[in-house]
């Protein structure tokens, strides 16, 4: 009898292990990358991808042969169609969908020393662009955040002298006017901005007069900026994303000033309740110039970028906020750096464009193609 019970226990554990293994394999098989139709033109980097109200994706600008051209991806049809062209060619601009469904595109540059202080709006119902006024200063590498009151906060950026600016301004789509939004505690560009649950905006890192660790908060009520806790390590060209629990995940980036492609592995979390940063588990691979996407189940997908040896990567991994751990997932079909990633209504992620001609001349083809993670 004891032998039978022991045998039964071993059998149960074996079946459980097989079930877990099979479940894991099934989950991994479900999460894979498939090619999407290629875009009409190459977009090497500096372009934007914005999800429209109807579930399609507007892609515009970027380095390439015709940076004023715009196109739309229809996930239902799996195809791209051209739409109205920008009035001004733009690279490293900001783009945000406003509450009325239109898309505000602003700033950036159109070539060497050609920094832009203009803005324009795309209307999905007509497929046309209209002027949306001008900034007080030209900005490239700024951030744009849709605030709770429907206005758009544009902060920082690099000016015509390639130095960070410390000004900010808001655009009101109801009046079509730009207004000053205080002076940031630090001039910064290529930074990150995240709308918190309390309505404030967390701005962090980037090339900053206060250093790569600095962070600050914008209060839309008082229209003032105040410092908050410094990051644990120096980070440039990092990413930041709001998690389901209200904390902000920051991962990777490079610890160096200047245009360096050394990708870091460490990650940290910002807690708005305390204003402090806490370390979390490391990325499986160092990454910089990668994309980050909050998926519908609360996990975070990161994809591509340079590793710590400045090699462009096709690998991807997922952060589980519940366990605080990273796990590898399926590789993209090609290596990508400074691409875009957009969460589609069906829960899949569309990745578009980008290659790096300096470090990866053979990756030119990835600047026109697109793929989907699901």
Biggest sheet strand order reads 10-11-12-13-16
Which segments are poorly predicted (pLDDT under 50) over 5 or more consecutive residues? 1-29, 358-364
| Secondary-structure content class | mainly beta
> Helix segment count?
1
As a percent range, the share of helical residues equals under 10%
Q: What is the average of the pLDDT values?
A: 89
The gross shape turns out to be: globular
Query: For the terminal residues, how far apart are their CA atoms?
Result: 49 Å
Strand content: 35-45%
Kindly state the number of beta strands: 29
Query: Radius of gyration from the CA trace?
Result: 22 Å
Order of helices and strands: HEEEEEEEEEEEEEEEEEEEEEEEEEEEEE
Biggest pleated sheet: 5 strands, antiparallel
Short description:
The chain is mainly β. The protein contains one helix and 29 strands. A five-stranded antiparallel sheet has the order 10-11-12-13-16, with no helix packed on it. The chain has a four-stranded antiparallel sheet with strand order 1-29-28-27, with no helix packed on it.
